[in-house]
Amino acid sequence: xxxxxxxxxxxIWVFGFFNFFSGTTIYDVFxxxxxxxxxxxxxxxxxxxxxxxxxxxxxxxxPNYYRIGLEDVYFNSHVxxxxxxxxxxxxxxxxxxxxxxxSQSTTKQGIDIGGLDLNGxxxxxxxxxxxxxxVLVSSS
Length: 140
Prior knowledge:
mainly alpha; 7 helices; elongated
């Protein structure tokens, strides 16, 4: 959860350096508002509901399966900061690569096809894809 929200917010912060913190937003407002509910929460909810490693009877009969939660094996400060920095560098990389490549692209007639709307929507789409792929890869 922290990773996906850091990955969403860091491009806004990096974009501030490109526009001298003028307050211009990089994302469309409707896409930005739908990020946590529609684009990234539904795959996590689906995974949480349908991922059954053990049967309920087996879990109730053996409390040692819950030891990893009590000992903070998968959620401690080291894991938190690792995911935080993953989100930071991936978000910064997405913005820099997008603005660099889209500013270099023109049509055959010499018209620049890069613009704030195109760049922002591309970054947002890339973030949604990266976050959902990360959930898929990390869930195994």
